Amino acid sequence: MLTLLLAERPFRDLRSRALLANLPAQLGGGTALLLSTASSTAPAGFEPLSPEADPAAHGVTRVVIAGAFQERPQLEQAFAIAGRAVAAGAALELRAFTVERGAAMRDPPRGVEVLARASPLELREHHTANALMVWRSPAAFRIRPYPECAVAPDDALVSLLPEGPILGLSILGGGQMRQAWTARLAELRALLAPMQGWAMLPLPMEHAASPMDDFAGTRDFLAALLPGTPMLLPELAQEVWRRRQFTPGRMRALVARCGAVLTNQDLPAAFAIAAGVPAIGLALGTDRRAITCLTQFANILPPGSRLLHPPRG
Fold first, then answer.
1. Is the C-alpha dihedral spanning 213, 181, 251, 124 positive or negative?
2. Is pLDDT of 16 > 70?
3. Residues near 190 by Cβ (< 8 Å), separated by ≥ 6?
4. CB-based burial label for 298 (10 Å; 0-12, 13-18, 19+)
């Protein structure tokens, strides 16, 4: 069986790597895996295939759409490639599938009808399920919440942490995010007051070159709320070190060492909940990742977890 993986910017950032990490094992050991990418190279275990290539002409017998999609053109491209492959006789599966931001707009994406041919069709959370229902998709889905939490923890970086309480921080960067939390400084200072004196650990998952880089966002947030407080693992500021050393498994192990995690991201929140660490989700701007994660796990949140919305008015 020759399998083609379709993902938005596959393996580019830590969340994509976490969402796709266990796919080879799920799809069956020894299965040949192609990765739809414009790049001439692919991560170990995959062979690159241009998005313009004909899947049938390359012998593809199974297509897997996986991971998080944020952009409508990327989502529609995945549906189009899958549609061509299915029309030629390939099977279709969806794994850890998430739509958000532009990809989750109310109007149905072109090619969404191909989802009715998918088995299994596994969604990562209820927000994506709602999007499929708004699109009036007849596809039968099931929610498998945040499957990236099955990534095995790797303790390689834990020895670099000091003794004592640690607050994990992950705040998206960019002007909109900064404006959103700057408007709530008094509320946030009160929230952080009990954590004065804690060590602060950044938990970045965005690509370092992203305008929303959450290492830069976390650094700016900390400087404004707790000026003078140093961040642990300063090596994370180095793009090459972060890409090579900061793996999903290592983030999971670091999160488990924290006394609490404060974030507007989903991956650090999901890892915290899986480890029994209080997760404090922060609703900022139009981004709803933390909202979706904490509401998905609302019935099993560790004690001390909460979701902070902007005050009414």
1. negative
2. yes
3. none
4. exposed
Instruction: Provide the residue type at 130 as one letter.
Output: N
For residue 290, give every residue at least 6 positions away whose Cβ sits within 8 Å of its Cβ, in sequence order, or none: 263, 264, 265, 266, 269, 281, 282, 283, 307
The answer to whether the beta carbons of residues 91 and 61 sit under 8 Å apart is yes
Q: What is the pTM of this model?
A: 0.94
Mapping DSSP to helix (H, G, I), strand (E, B) and coil, where does residue 230 land?
coil
Residue with tokens 């003794």: 163
Q: Please choose, from the candidates 308, 286, 310, 267, the residue with its C-alpha nearest in 3D space to the C-alpha of residue 176.
A: 286
Helical residues (DSSP H) of 102-174, grouped into ranges: 126-134
CA distance 228 to 226: 6
168: CB partners within 8 A, 6+ apart: 201, 202, 203, 254, 255, 258, 260, 261, 262, 263, 268, 272, 277
Phi (first) and psi of residue 62, to 5 degrees:
-145, 135
CB neighbours of 133 closer than 8 A, spacing ≥ 6? none
Dump pLDDT digits (tens) for 67-114.
999 999 999 999 999 999 999 999 999 999 999 999 999 999 999 999
The CA–CA distances, whole Å, from 276 to 118, 249, 260 equal 34, 16, 9
**Angstrom distance (rounded) from CA 234 to CA 220:** 14
Query: 212-255 pLDDT, tens per residue?
Result: 899 999 999 999 999 989 899 999 999 999 999 999 999 999 99
Dihedral (Cα; 45, 49, 55, 58), 10-degree rounding: -80
- Residue 165 parent element (H or E): none
Q: Which token pair is 278?
A: 């209080």
Distance CA 31, CA 214 (A): 35
Residue 145 corresponds to which amino acid? P
Residue pair 255/221 in contact by the 8 Å Cβ criterion: no
